[in-house]
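STRUCTURE:
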């Protein structure tokens, strides 16, 4: 089933400001929170509202969504695009709106997916047209082999956090527009793990991960264009507590070409020809992104004339369609002539080089 438009989900216009988006989110989250809503599809509605707000409340993600739609953003649930900063997480929405009660709390030691990474790669014009395989070197965060991600020197160095008693969260009482509320936040002492480390791992210094330089092979498909992305599954940051790695997104930047200009899947090229070729016609070997082809220039061709070479453009990344190449003719005036050429042009000048109809049309504009 196709995803609904995020603006439609929140009931705001595409020009809505941050305040309007936040206000709409608060209202809908209160209505569809599964712990209080009587709607039959409350949980699905609530997740949809979460996703819409996570994207539209983040300036970068919203810009990508406005430009590319759902394909331009990545959402992986709570803590994904946009996140829920300012609300204390999924479980705090209930407490901040309704003053406490039974709360849903994520297990601090449950497996969590790693963050996605993004890297830009610049490639040559012809490599983008034809496709290429490249290797890139990245600093990749990996689980520490010494402590296996625990961050502790040994298992005996891991104890229950004394500040949250292993819950991973701490609570506070506050007065809001809804009255007295009891909210919870991630424990700042154990960062939500519910554990404390007495002696840290000597290798990773308690981080649980180490950074290593890795070589990653990237297959760049033919027809890719600037700002398009290549997704490398599970090449992002490592997961936590055994969770899967995030993904790596390679954003492509294509260098311009000296002669070819790309317009979507079409190629445009300017072809210089001589007076003689333009007047008499000629068969000219013309370069394309797929190699040279013979282009027939008819006699009497004028500067600016355009010729189409079908199927000599760029292959679409997503379909079997291939664009065309458009050749724009430019008649070049010689700057230096030898004596023989001067004699030829001198003889030519004494003839009627321009058709009488063209000259009459021109002079007719300036009649007294």
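SEQUENCE:
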């Amino acid at each position: 089933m196709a995803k609904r438009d995020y603006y439609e989900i929140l009931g705001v216009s595409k020009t809505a400001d941050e305040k309007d988006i936040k206000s709409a989110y608060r209202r809908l989250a209160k209505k569809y929170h599964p712990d209080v809503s009587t709607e039959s599809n409350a949980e699905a509605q609530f997740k949809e509202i979460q996703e819409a707000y996570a994207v539209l409340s983040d300036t970068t993600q919203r810009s990508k969504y406005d430009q590319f739609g759902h394909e331009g953003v990545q959402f992986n649930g709570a803590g994904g695009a946009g996140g829920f900063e300012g609300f204390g997480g999924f479980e705090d929405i209930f407490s901040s709106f309704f003053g406490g009660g039974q709360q849903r709390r994520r297990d601090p030691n449950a497996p969590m997916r790693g963050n996605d990474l993004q890297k830009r790669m610049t490639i040559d014009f012809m490599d983008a047209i034809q496709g290429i395989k490249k290797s890139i070197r990245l600093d990749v965060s990996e689980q520490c082999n010494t402590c296996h991600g625990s961050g502790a020197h040994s298992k005996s160095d891991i104890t229950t956090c004394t500040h949250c008693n292993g819950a991973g969260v701490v609570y506070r009482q506050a007065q809001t527009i809804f009255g007295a509320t009891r909210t919870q936040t991630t424990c700042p002492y154990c960062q939500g793990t519910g554990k404390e480390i007495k002696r840290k791992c000597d290798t990773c210094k308690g981080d649980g991960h180490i950074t290593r330089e890795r070589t990653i092979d990237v297959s760049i498909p033919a027809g890719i264009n600037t700002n398009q992305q290549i997704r490398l599954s599970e090449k992002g940051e490592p997961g936590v507590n055994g969770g899967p790695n995030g993904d790596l997104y390679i954003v492509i930047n294509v260098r311009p070409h000296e002669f070819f200009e790309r317009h979507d899947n079409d190629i445009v090229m300017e072809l210089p020809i001589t007076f003689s070729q333009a007047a008499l016609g000629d068969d000219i070997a013309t370069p394309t992104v797929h190699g040279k082809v013979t282009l027939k220039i008819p006699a009497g061709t004028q500067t600016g004339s355009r010729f189409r070479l079908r199927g000599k453009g760029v292959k679409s990344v997503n379909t079997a369609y291939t664009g065309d190449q458009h050749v724009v003719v430019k008649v070049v005036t010689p700057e230096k002539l030898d004596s023989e050429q001067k004699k030829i042009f001198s003889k030519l000048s004494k003839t009627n080089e321009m058709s009488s109809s063209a000259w009459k049309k021109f002079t007719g504009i300036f009649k007294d």
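REMARK: Residues 128 and 134 are 12 Å apart (CA to CA).
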